[in-house]
Specification:
Length: about 325
Amino acid sequence: MLDGVTGAIWKVAIDRENCLVFRDLKLCESLVPLLHSQPEEVMINVAGSIAECAKIPENIEQIRKAGGLTHLVNLLSGTNPTLLINVAHALGKCATEPDSATIIDKYDGVRLLWSLLKSPNPQVQSSAAWAICPCIDNNKDAGEMVRSLVGGLELIVSLLKSDNREVLASICSAVANIAKDEQNLAVLTDHGVVPILSKLVVAHAADDYVKGHIADAIGRCCIWGNNRKEFGARGVVKPLVRYLKSKDTFVYKAAAMALFHLSLEPENCVVMHENHAKQWLVNMVGDDDWVLQEAAAGCIANIRHLALANDISKSGR
């Protein structure tokens, strides 16, 4: 009976409008006690329901106040792949709220999610990686938290070699979040993140779903040391210019951001100019997204500065 009811709630909760109704009914408060001492099938349905309900911020608050986060974290020690996937989804949605992200970390949730990256199941790996992203993004001490996970960054880089596109997309997203901390970016660099991302940018050039996350990771990783120069030497600029032609907003925005960082290296500007990046970037300067505007304008400015410097150099000969 309970199995059927919770399964029905999960399916109905896929519709956001229904989640608003569940919010008013405070359904999440009733679901949380079912996250323990129940048959696995029931807990799978409940975790799935909570993951869907967590699309609404007020539902996240209900889950947190009812003690749902600790129950979810406890379930990460299980072995049922479907349950682990649903629990990871639920924690990832809840971690978009900073208070919840703090609690998840406090009860060792981030370490347990990271351990799921070792799972042989690609769906478990990717769901864990997606959940880790908001845990990093909404934690004030994210840099130190990641550094405390022994072997964690090496594991992340190794998963960039996965053949599964969902794993690749989620791990690239995790890399982009981790790279916001310079010390962790330095470690990622030492583990060879640059040559791996450089191969991926070409290998997945036809896959909009993956390549937006690859471009995002490249842009974030440009900040450290000679990375932007090495990315250029490994041929990432030309395919990234092609990414600007994508109709997917996330892809061309991530590509523009990456090209802006890469344009701080003169040799990369030459490649951008040769591949007519400016004609695509000019259109983006008028975009409604001011972050994209600034990235596109900055990239164009760097290309022009290089061209001007070359003209001055030629005229002085």
